[in-house]
Amino acid sequence: xxxxxxxxxxxxxxxxxxxxxxxxxxxxxxxxxxxxxxxxxxxxxxxxxxxxxxxxxxxxxxxxxxxxxxxxxxxxxxxxxxxxxxxxxxxxxxxxxxxxxxxxxxxxxxxxxxxxxxxxxxxxxxxxxxxxxxxxxxxxxxxxxxxxxxxxxxxxxxxxxxxxxxxxxxxxxxxxxxxxxxxxxxxxxxxxxxxxxxxxxxxxxxxxxxxxxxxxxxxxxxxxxxxxxxxxxxxxxxxxxxxxxxxxxxxxxxxxxxxxxxxxxxxxxxxxxxxxxxxxxxxxxxxxxxxxxxxxxxxxxxxxxxxxxxxxxxxxxxxxxxxxxxxxxxxxxxxxxxxxxxxxxxxxxxxxxxxxxxxxxxxxxxxxxxxxxxxxxxxxxxxxxxxxxxxxxxxxxxxxxxxxxxxxxxxxxxxxxxxxxxxxxxxxxxx
Length: 431
Known about the structure:
The protein is an all-alpha fold and 431 residues long. Helices cover 70% and strands 0% of the residues. The chain contains 23 helices and no strands. The longest helix has 17 residues, at 92-108. It is elongated. It starts with 21 loop residues before the first helix and ends with a helix.
Protein backbone atom coordinates (compact mmCIF):
# COMPACT_ATOMS: atom_id res chain seq x y z
CA UNK A 1 0.00 0.00 0.00
CA UNK A 2 1.50 3.34 -1.02
CA UNK A 3 1.50 6.28 1.35
CA UNK A 4 2.60 9.90 1.02
CA UNK A 5 6.40 9.60 1.33
CA UNK A 6 7.16 13.06 2.70
CA UNK A 7 4.53 13.22 5.42
CA UNK A 8 4.98 11.51 8.72
CA UNK A 9 1.49 10.19 9.24
CA UNK A 10 0.29 8.91 12.55
CA UNK A 11 -1.06 5.40 12.77
CA UNK A 12 -4.62 4.32 13.38
CA UNK A 13 -6.97 6.20 15.66
CA UNK A 14 -6.28 5.86 19.35
CA UNK A 15 -7.96 2.77 20.71
CA UNK A 16 -10.26 3.22 23.67
CA UNK A 17 -10.81 0.23 25.93
CA UNK A 18 -13.96 0.80 27.91
CA UNK A 19 -14.35 -2.36 29.96
CA UNK A 20 -17.63 -2.76 31.77
CA UNK A 21 -16.93 -2.55 35.49
CA UNK A 22 -18.77 -4.32 38.27
CA UNK A 23 -21.15 -1.45 39.08
CA UNK A 24 -22.18 -1.15 35.41
CA UNK A 25 -23.13 -4.83 35.30
CA UNK A 26 -25.26 -4.49 38.37
CA UNK A 27 -27.07 -1.45 37.02
CA UNK A 28 -27.83 -3.11 33.66
CA UNK A 29 -30.39 -5.53 35.15
CA UNK A 30 -34.04 -4.86 34.49
CA UNK A 31 -35.72 -2.01 32.63
CA UNK A 32 -34.19 1.43 32.58
CA UNK A 33 -36.03 4.30 34.17
CA UNK A 34 -36.98 7.35 32.15
CA UNK A 35 -34.13 9.16 33.83
CA UNK A 36 -31.70 6.46 32.64
CA UNK A 37 -33.02 6.82 29.09
CA UNK A 38 -32.33 10.56 29.12
CA UNK A 39 -28.76 9.83 30.24
CA UNK A 40 -28.25 7.11 27.64
CA UNK A 41 -25.26 7.56 25.33
CA UNK A 42 -27.34 6.49 22.34
CA UNK A 43 -30.85 7.77 23.10
CA UNK A 44 -31.96 7.78 19.45
CA UNK A 45 -30.61 4.36 18.49
CA UNK A 46 -32.76 2.28 16.16
CA UNK A 47 -31.68 -0.92 17.90
CA UNK A 48 -34.18 -2.20 20.45
CA UNK A 49 -32.86 -2.57 23.99
CA UNK A 50 -32.64 -6.30 24.78
CA UNK A 51 -33.62 -7.85 28.07
CA UNK A 52 -30.75 -9.03 30.21
CA UNK A 53 -30.59 -12.64 31.31
CA UNK A 54 -27.89 -12.69 33.99
CA UNK A 55 -29.52 -13.98 37.17
CA UNK A 56 -26.82 -16.04 38.87
CA UNK A 57 -25.11 -13.99 41.59
CA UNK A 58 -22.12 -16.35 41.71
CA UNK A 59 -21.58 -16.07 37.96
CA UNK A 60 -22.00 -12.31 38.16
CA UNK A 61 -19.23 -12.21 40.77
CA UNK A 62 -16.89 -14.31 38.59
CA UNK A 63 -17.63 -12.05 35.63
CA UNK A 64 -16.97 -8.91 37.66
CA UNK A 65 -13.75 -10.34 39.06
CA UNK A 66 -12.63 -11.37 35.59
CA UNK A 67 -13.23 -7.93 34.11
CA UNK A 68 -11.49 -6.31 37.08
CA UNK A 69 -8.52 -8.59 36.38
CA UNK A 70 -8.47 -7.39 32.77
CA UNK A 71 -8.41 -3.78 33.98
CA UNK A 72 -5.60 -4.66 36.41
CA UNK A 73 -3.56 -6.33 33.66
CA UNK A 74 -3.75 -9.77 35.29
CA UNK A 75 -4.15 -11.83 32.13
CA UNK A 76 -3.91 -15.29 33.69
CA UNK A 77 -6.56 -14.62 36.33
CA UNK A 78 -8.81 -12.89 33.80
CA UNK A 79 -8.67 -15.78 31.32
CA UNK A 80 -9.20 -18.35 34.08
CA UNK A 81 -12.41 -16.58 35.09
CA UNK A 82 -13.72 -15.37 31.72
CA UNK A 83 -13.02 -18.24 29.33
CA UNK A 84 -15.40 -20.72 31.03
CA UNK A 85 -18.13 -18.08 31.03
CA UNK A 86 -17.57 -17.33 27.33
CA UNK A 87 -17.62 -21.04 26.48
CA UNK A 88 -20.52 -22.41 28.48
CA UNK A 89 -22.51 -19.85 30.44
CA UNK A 90 -26.28 -20.18 30.20
CA UNK A 91 -26.44 -16.37 30.19
CA UNK A 92 -25.86 -14.84 26.78
CA UNK A 93 -25.25 -11.48 28.46
CA UNK A 94 -22.47 -12.97 30.60
CA UNK A 95 -20.96 -14.62 27.53
CA UNK A 96 -20.93 -11.30 25.70
CA UNK A 97 -19.18 -9.42 28.48
CA UNK A 98 -16.67 -12.25 28.99
CA UNK A 99 -15.82 -12.16 25.28
CA UNK A 100 -15.37 -8.39 25.50
CA UNK A 101 -12.78 -8.86 28.24
CA UNK A 102 -11.02 -11.59 26.26
CA UNK A 103 -10.94 -9.32 23.20
CA UNK A 104 -9.09 -6.64 25.14
CA UNK A 105 -6.61 -9.17 26.52
CA UNK A 106 -5.84 -10.39 23.01
CA UNK A 107 -5.46 -6.86 21.67
CA UNK A 108 -3.03 -5.96 24.45
CA UNK A 109 -1.01 -9.03 23.44
CA UNK A 110 -0.91 -7.73 19.83
CA UNK A 111 -3.23 -10.51 18.70
CA UNK A 112 -5.49 -8.15 16.75
CA UNK A 113 -7.06 -10.94 14.72
CA UNK A 114 -8.00 -12.79 17.90
CA UNK A 115 -9.32 -9.57 19.43
CA UNK A 116 -11.54 -8.96 16.41
CA UNK A 117 -12.90 -12.50 16.52
CA UNK A 118 -13.76 -12.30 20.24
CA UNK A 119 -15.30 -8.83 20.00
CA UNK A 120 -17.35 -9.75 16.94
CA UNK A 121 -18.70 -12.84 18.73
CA UNK A 122 -19.60 -10.64 21.70
CA UNK A 123 -21.61 -8.30 19.48
CA UNK A 124 -23.20 -11.05 17.38
CA UNK A 125 -24.80 -12.64 20.44
CA UNK A 126 -27.02 -9.56 20.36
CA UNK A 127 -27.98 -9.16 24.03
CA UNK A 128 -25.80 -6.25 25.14
CA UNK A 129 -27.50 -3.00 26.24
CA UNK A 130 -27.30 -0.27 23.65
CA UNK A 131 -24.68 1.83 25.41
CA UNK A 132 -22.35 -1.16 25.75
CA UNK A 133 -23.20 -2.57 22.31
CA UNK A 134 -22.44 0.60 20.38
CA UNK A 135 -19.38 1.37 22.46
CA UNK A 136 -17.95 -2.04 21.55
CA UNK A 137 -19.02 -1.76 17.92
CA UNK A 138 -16.99 1.42 17.62
CA UNK A 139 -14.08 -0.36 19.27
CA UNK A 140 -14.42 -3.12 16.65
CA UNK A 141 -14.05 -0.51 13.90
CA UNK A 142 -10.82 0.62 15.55
CA UNK A 143 -9.59 -2.97 15.78
CA UNK A 144 -10.23 -3.42 12.05
CA UNK A 145 -8.20 -0.29 11.31
CA UNK A 146 -5.32 -1.56 13.44
CA UNK A 147 -5.49 -4.88 11.55
CA UNK A 148 -5.35 -3.04 8.19
CA UNK A 149 -8.82 -4.33 7.31
CA UNK A 150 -9.81 -0.92 6.10
CA UNK A 151 -13.09 -1.62 4.31
CA UNK A 152 -14.38 -3.58 7.33
CA UNK A 153 -13.43 -0.63 9.52
CA UNK A 154 -15.39 1.77 7.31
CA UNK A 155 -18.41 -0.55 7.10
CA UNK A 156 -18.45 -0.99 10.86
CA UNK A 157 -18.20 2.70 11.74
CA UNK A 158 -20.93 3.55 9.20
CA UNK A 159 -23.17 0.88 10.74
CA UNK A 160 -22.37 2.32 14.17
CA UNK A 161 -23.48 5.79 13.03
CA UNK A 162 -26.59 4.60 11.19
CA UNK A 163 -27.94 2.39 13.96
CA UNK A 164 -26.66 4.35 16.94
CA UNK A 165 -27.80 7.65 15.43
CA UNK A 166 -24.67 9.36 16.66
CA UNK A 167 -22.04 11.40 14.85
CA UNK A 168 -18.63 12.25 16.26
CA UNK A 169 -15.59 13.94 14.81
CA UNK A 170 -13.48 10.94 15.79
CA UNK A 171 -15.65 8.51 13.84
CA UNK A 172 -15.24 10.50 10.61
CA UNK A 173 -11.50 10.82 11.26
CA UNK A 174 -11.27 7.06 11.63
CA UNK A 175 -13.11 6.67 8.34
CA UNK A 176 -10.82 9.20 6.65
CA UNK A 177 -7.76 7.36 7.91
CA UNK A 178 -9.05 4.09 6.46
CA UNK A 179 -9.91 5.69 3.11
CA UNK A 180 -6.45 7.26 2.92
CA UNK A 181 -4.77 3.93 3.47
CA UNK A 182 -6.94 2.42 0.72
CA UNK A 183 -5.73 5.26 -1.55
CA UNK A 184 -9.29 6.55 -1.92
CA UNK A 185 -8.20 10.13 -1.50
CA UNK A 186 -11.41 12.04 -2.40
CA UNK A 187 -13.32 10.01 0.21
CA UNK A 188 -10.54 10.55 2.72
CA UNK A 189 -10.65 14.31 2.16
CA UNK A 190 -14.44 14.42 2.58
CA UNK A 191 -14.34 12.36 5.79
CA UNK A 192 -11.54 14.38 7.40
CA UNK A 193 -13.19 17.70 6.52
CA UNK A 194 -16.41 16.39 8.06
CA UNK A 195 -14.49 15.43 11.21
CA UNK A 196 -12.96 18.89 11.45
CA UNK A 197 -16.38 20.52 11.07
CA UNK A 198 -17.68 18.69 14.15
CA UNK A 199 -15.10 19.95 16.64
CA UNK A 200 -13.19 23.08 17.54
CA UNK A 201 -10.18 20.98 18.56
CA UNK A 202 -9.25 18.79 15.58
CA UNK A 203 -6.31 16.48 16.10
CA UNK A 204 -3.00 17.18 14.39
CA UNK A 205 -3.02 13.76 12.74
CA UNK A 206 -6.23 14.65 10.88
CA UNK A 207 -4.52 17.55 9.13
CA UNK A 208 -1.62 15.30 8.19
CA UNK A 209 -3.99 12.82 6.54
CA UNK A 210 -5.80 15.67 4.79
CA UNK A 211 -2.58 17.18 3.47
CA UNK A 212 -1.32 13.80 2.31
CA UNK A 213 -4.63 13.07 0.58
CA UNK A 214 -4.50 16.41 -1.22
CA UNK A 215 -0.91 15.77 -2.29
CA UNK A 216 -1.54 12.19 -3.44
CA UNK A 217 -4.61 13.18 -5.44
CA UNK A 218 -2.68 15.83 -7.35
CA UNK A 219 -4.10 18.78 -5.41
CA UNK A 220 -0.69 20.09 -4.42
CA UNK A 221 -1.84 23.70 -4.19
CA UNK A 222 -4.52 22.82 -1.63
CA UNK A 223 -2.00 20.74 0.30
CA UNK A 224 0.49 23.59 0.34
CA UNK A 225 -2.17 26.11 1.34
CA UNK A 226 -3.31 23.95 4.24
CA UNK A 227 0.27 23.40 5.38
CA UNK A 228 1.01 27.11 5.34
CA UNK A 229 -2.19 27.87 7.25
CA UNK A 230 -1.18 25.40 9.93
CA UNK A 231 2.25 26.96 10.24
CA UNK A 232 0.79 30.46 10.40
CA UNK A 233 -1.45 29.35 13.27
CA UNK A 234 1.48 27.62 15.03
CA UNK A 235 4.63 29.50 13.99
CA UNK A 236 6.79 27.89 16.70
CA UNK A 237 5.53 24.35 16.10
CA UNK A 238 8.33 22.23 14.60
CA UNK A 239 5.86 19.60 13.40
CA UNK A 240 3.77 22.21 11.59
CA UNK A 241 6.94 23.57 9.95
CA UNK A 242 8.09 20.12 8.85
CA UNK A 243 4.65 19.30 7.45
CA UNK A 244 4.50 22.55 5.52
CA UNK A 245 7.96 22.07 4.09
CA UNK A 246 7.27 18.43 3.19
CA UNK A 247 4.11 19.33 1.29
CA UNK A 248 5.78 22.23 -0.52
CA UNK A 249 8.66 19.96 -1.51
CA UNK A 250 6.25 17.32 -2.79
CA UNK A 251 4.62 20.04 -4.86
CA UNK A 252 8.14 21.03 -6.00
CA UNK A 253 7.62 24.52 -4.60
CA UNK A 254 11.21 24.71 -3.36
CA UNK A 255 11.59 28.51 -3.12
CA UNK A 256 8.43 28.73 -0.97
CA UNK A 257 9.72 25.94 1.25
CA UNK A 258 13.04 27.72 1.68
CA UNK A 259 11.26 30.99 2.48
CA UNK A 260 9.25 29.32 5.24
CA UNK A 261 12.31 27.69 6.74
CA UNK A 262 14.42 30.83 6.62
CA UNK A 263 11.68 32.78 8.40
CA UNK A 264 11.60 30.13 11.08
CA UNK A 265 15.40 30.12 11.40
CA UNK A 266 15.51 33.91 11.70
CA UNK A 267 12.90 33.77 14.45
CA UNK A 268 14.89 31.18 16.40
CA UNK A 269 12.54 28.38 15.43
CA UNK A 270 15.27 25.90 14.47
CA UNK A 271 15.55 23.72 17.55
CA UNK A 272 16.70 20.44 16.06
CA UNK A 273 19.31 19.11 13.67
CA UNK A 274 16.74 17.98 11.13
CA UNK A 275 15.65 21.56 10.41
CA UNK A 276 19.18 22.71 9.53
CA UNK A 277 19.94 19.61 7.46
CA UNK A 278 16.66 19.80 5.54
CA UNK A 279 17.18 23.48 4.72
CA UNK A 280 20.70 22.77 3.48
CA UNK A 281 19.39 19.95 1.28
CA UNK A 282 16.66 22.24 -0.04
CA UNK A 283 19.28 24.77 -1.12
CA UNK A 284 21.25 22.03 -2.89
CA UNK A 285 18.15 20.70 -4.67
CA UNK A 286 17.24 24.22 -5.78
CA UNK A 287 20.79 24.83 -6.94
CA UNK A 288 20.84 21.68 -9.03
CA UNK A 289 17.78 22.93 -10.89
CA UNK A 290 19.42 26.25 -11.74
CA UNK A 291 22.04 27.23 -14.29
CA UNK A 292 24.53 28.19 -11.55
CA UNK A 293 24.30 25.98 -8.43
CA UNK A 294 27.12 27.79 -6.57
CA UNK A 295 25.06 30.54 -4.83
CA UNK A 296 22.57 28.07 -3.35
CA UNK A 297 25.34 25.63 -2.44
CA UNK A 298 27.11 28.46 -0.60
CA UNK A 299 23.90 29.10 1.35
CA UNK A 300 23.71 25.40 2.19
CA UNK A 301 27.23 25.58 3.62
CA UNK A 302 26.24 28.61 5.68
CA UNK A 303 23.18 26.86 7.10
CA UNK A 304 25.14 23.78 8.14
CA UNK A 305 27.96 25.81 9.69
CA UNK A 306 25.38 27.89 11.56
CA UNK A 307 23.85 24.75 13.03
CA UNK A 308 27.27 23.28 13.89
CA UNK A 309 28.42 26.50 15.59
CA UNK A 310 25.28 26.49 17.76
CA UNK A 311 25.82 22.88 18.78
CA UNK A 312 22.56 21.76 17.19
CA UNK A 313 24.02 20.00 14.13
CA UNK A 314 26.34 17.19 15.17
CA UNK A 315 29.59 16.36 13.41
CA UNK A 316 28.26 13.03 12.17
CA UNK A 317 29.43 11.23 9.04
CA UNK A 318 26.31 12.14 7.09
CA UNK A 319 26.40 15.80 8.12
CA UNK A 320 30.11 16.24 7.40
CA UNK A 321 29.74 14.48 4.06
CA UNK A 322 26.83 16.78 3.22
CA UNK A 323 28.96 19.78 4.19
CA UNK A 324 31.71 18.44 1.93
CA UNK A 325 29.31 18.03 -1.00
CA UNK A 326 27.89 21.52 -0.50
CA UNK A 327 31.36 23.03 -0.25
CA UNK A 328 32.47 21.26 -3.42
CA UNK A 329 29.45 22.48 -5.40
CA UNK A 330 30.03 25.97 -3.99
CA UNK A 331 33.57 25.87 -5.42
CA UNK A 332 35.39 25.71 -2.11
CA UNK A 333 37.54 22.62 -2.62
CA UNK A 334 39.68 23.15 0.46
CA UNK A 335 36.66 23.20 2.76
CA UNK A 336 35.20 20.20 0.94
CA UNK A 337 38.40 18.17 1.43
CA UNK A 338 38.55 19.19 5.10
CA UNK A 339 34.94 18.07 5.66
CA UNK A 340 35.44 14.76 3.85
CA UNK A 341 38.56 14.02 5.90
CA UNK A 342 36.67 14.67 9.14
CA UNK A 343 33.89 12.37 7.98
CA UNK A 344 36.17 9.49 6.93
CA UNK A 345 36.85 7.88 10.35
CA UNK A 346 33.11 7.69 11.09
CA UNK A 347 32.00 6.25 7.78
CA UNK A 348 30.84 2.69 7.25
CA UNK A 349 31.99 3.03 3.65
CA UNK A 350 34.80 4.77 1.81
CA UNK A 351 32.78 7.28 -0.19
CA UNK A 352 34.07 10.35 1.68
CA UNK A 353 37.67 9.21 1.19
CA UNK A 354 37.12 8.74 -2.55
CA UNK A 355 35.60 12.21 -2.89
CA UNK A 356 38.46 13.80 -0.99
CA UNK A 357 40.96 11.88 -3.09
CA UNK A 358 39.29 13.00 -6.32
CA UNK A 359 39.56 16.65 -5.26
CA UNK A 360 43.21 16.20 -4.30
CA UNK A 361 43.87 14.82 -7.79
CA UNK A 362 42.53 18.07 -9.26
CA UNK A 363 45.05 19.88 -7.08
CA UNK A 364 47.81 17.54 -8.33
CA UNK A 365 48.44 16.24 -4.80
CA UNK A 366 48.93 12.73 -6.12
CA UNK A 367 50.54 11.10 -3.12
CA UNK A 368 47.86 12.17 -0.66
CA UNK A 369 45.15 11.40 -3.21
CA UNK A 370 46.51 7.87 -3.69
CA UNK A 371 46.49 7.23 0.06
CA UNK A 372 42.88 8.36 0.49
CA UNK A 373 41.60 6.56 -2.60
CA UNK A 374 43.18 3.28 -1.46
CA UNK A 375 41.62 3.76 1.98
CA UNK A 376 38.24 4.32 0.35
CA UNK A 377 38.51 1.20 -1.81
CA UNK A 378 39.56 -0.92 1.18
CA UNK A 379 36.56 0.33 3.18
CA UNK A 380 34.12 -0.30 0.34
CA UNK A 381 32.58 1.94 -2.30
CA UNK A 382 29.54 1.72 -4.53
CA UNK A 383 31.37 2.37 -7.81
CA UNK A 384 34.54 0.35 -7.41
CA UNK A 385 35.60 0.64 -11.07
CA UNK A 386 35.51 4.43 -10.93
CA UNK A 387 37.58 4.38 -7.74
CA UNK A 388 40.26 2.22 -9.38
CA UNK A 389 40.38 4.59 -12.36
CA UNK A 390 41.00 7.45 -9.92
CA UNK A 391 43.73 5.38 -8.29
CA UNK A 392 45.28 4.82 -11.73
CA UNK A 393 45.28 8.57 -12.31
CA UNK A 394 47.06 9.11 -9.00
CA UNK A 395 49.67 6.47 -9.93
CA UNK A 396 50.20 8.14 -13.30
CA UNK A 397 50.70 11.47 -11.52
CA UNK A 398 53.35 9.78 -9.40
CA UNK A 399 54.87 8.35 -12.63
CA UNK A 400 54.22 4.83 -11.40
CA UNK A 401 53.17 3.12 -14.65
CA UNK A 402 53.03 -0.44 -13.21
CA UNK A 403 50.80 0.84 -10.43
CA UNK A 404 48.54 2.61 -12.93
CA UNK A 405 48.30 -0.54 -15.03
CA UNK A 406 47.44 -2.66 -12.01
CA UNK A 407 44.69 -0.22 -11.02
CA UNK A 408 43.29 -0.11 -14.55
CA UNK A 409 43.18 -3.91 -14.69
CA UNK A 410 41.00 -3.82 -11.59
CA UNK A 411 38.79 -1.16 -13.19
CA UNK A 412 38.45 -3.41 -16.26
CA UNK A 413 36.74 -6.03 -14.08
CA UNK A 414 33.85 -3.67 -13.29
CA UNK A 415 31.11 -3.57 -15.97
CA UNK A 416 30.64 0.16 -15.41
CA UNK A 417 34.23 1.01 -16.33
CA UNK A 418 35.32 -2.06 -18.27
CA UNK A 419 35.25 -0.46 -21.74
CA UNK A 420 37.20 2.66 -20.76
CA UNK A 421 39.73 0.72 -18.74
CA UNK A 422 40.36 -1.81 -21.52
CA UNK A 423 40.75 1.00 -24.05
CA UNK A 424 43.38 2.64 -21.79
CA UNK A 425 45.19 -0.62 -21.27
CA UNK A 426 45.25 -1.26 -25.03
CA UNK A 427 46.62 2.21 -25.69
CA UNK A 428 49.25 1.60 -23.02
CA UNK A 429 50.27 -1.54 -24.85
CA UNK A 430 49.09 -3.86 -22.13
CA UNK A 431 46.82 -6.87 -22.58
